[in-house]
Amino acid sequence: MDMARISSKGQVTIPVDIRRKLGLKEGDKVVFLEKGSDVILINSNRLAFAEFQREMMGEAEKAGVGSEQDVVDLVREARRKLWGERYEGDV
Q1: Beta partners for 31?
Q2: Rounded to whole angstroms, what are the CA distances from 50 to 41, 43, 56?
Q3: Which of 12, 16, 13, 41 is nearest to 29 (CA)?
Q4: C-beta separation of 60 from 76 below 8 A
Q5: Which domains, ranges and CATH numbers included, belong to the chain?
């Protein structure tokens, strides 16, 4: 268990092992999430990425994408279409 002291300005130094676990570096932003009587510290980049993933899962379900192979197939099809649009008839 790591402990920290609050300064007169309300600042807390996050212990180095916690910064490493959260992937935090100087200048990064963190989110303080209240959960009952506790506060959870979260790397804001990871939180944003997790929210993005949740949103994309909903979009994937709407589009009928259910597996990694479905994504691979969609990317291949998009590349084929793009290749055809760019280079069709240029041979």
Answers
A1: 42
A2: 15, 11, 10
A3: 41
A4: no
A5: 1-65 (2.10.260.10)
Q: What radius of gyration, in Å, describes the C-alpha atoms of the chain?
A: 22
Average pLDDT, consecutive stretches of 10 residues, N- to C-terminus, the chain (91 residues):
93 94 90 92 77 73 78 86 76 50
Q: What is the pLDDT of residue 60?
A: 73
pLDDT of residue 89: 57
Residues 19, 49, 51, 31: is their CA dihedral positive or negative?
A: positive
* Cα–Cα distance measured from residue 91 to residue 75, given in angstroms and rounded to the nearest whole number: 24
44: its two tokens: 């804001």
- Pair of tokens at residue 9: 């300005």
- Sequence-ordered list of residues with C-beta below 8 angstroms from that of 18, at least 6 positions apart, any chain: 2, 24, 41
Please tell me the chain's helix, strand, coil percentages from 3-state DSSP, rounded to the nearest 5. 50, 15, 35
